[in-house]
Amino acid sequence: MSAKSNKTSSDWIDLSVTLRxxxxxxxxxxxxxxxxxxxxxxxxxxxxxxxxxxxxxxxxMDAPRHFIADGKTIDQMPFNITLGPARVIEIVDNVSVxxxxxxxxxxxxxxxxxxxxxxxxxxxxxxxxxxDFIYITRGAARFLVDTGVKLVGVDxxxxxxxxxxxxxxxxxxxxxxxxxxxxxxxxNLTGVSAGNYNLICLPLKLNETEGSPVRAIxxxxxxx
Length: 224
Fold this sequence. Notes:
By secondary structure, the protein is α/β, with parallel strands linked by helices. The protein has a single domain (3-19, 55-220), classed as Putative cyclase (Glucose Oxidase, domain 1, 3-Layer(bba) Sandwich), CATH 3.50.30. 12% of the residues lie in helices and 27% in strands. A 7-stranded mixed beta barrel has the order 4-10-9-7-5-11-12. A two-stranded antiparallel sheet has the order 2-3. A two-stranded parallel ribbon has the order 6-8. Strand 11 (195-203) and strand 12 form a beta hairpin. Helix 3 (138-147) packs parallel to helix 4 (169-177). The chain is globular. It starts with 12 loop residues before the first strand and ends with a strand. Residues 1-5 and 165-169 have low confidence and may be disordered.
């Protein structure tokens, strides 16, 4: 389902993917399982569902604690990290997000940056993860940190590469999270144009965890 199909009459766009059994996930993560414990169709008085999943399933956030031993946990995230103006930047490179391309966009300190790549139209069309998704290089991560970006969002399940011999996933995570640049992973930016938006994205208040599922929505600036 494209993000554009989730528009409402107020022009809010849902960037979150639907959580469901069998959805795309890393092999190292537990698969999501939805258990209908009580069912009115079976004669129970109410419906009641339990959910079993990794906090890094679907559209989710990484807190610094994900790769930094004494980093902030998800319940310690300041609200101003994910509430406010955000900019969608469309990446042309079909291999990786590089510092040279980011430098063309005049990114300012304190910005919230959502990176739309070639992942969006194809990543969520399958339940099998591919290693060749577009990722953030270490150089680009350092550029974002040096620029003072407070939040970066990507349209894949990881900011880092799974299969690049010159980079391992922790490198990119450690550069960003070690400097308290918070991360949203698993966005669906299909149909979303580059530009300025209002962002609302809140994680669950999970005690001392390194991540959480989120519902991320944006609205073109000027629509409020």
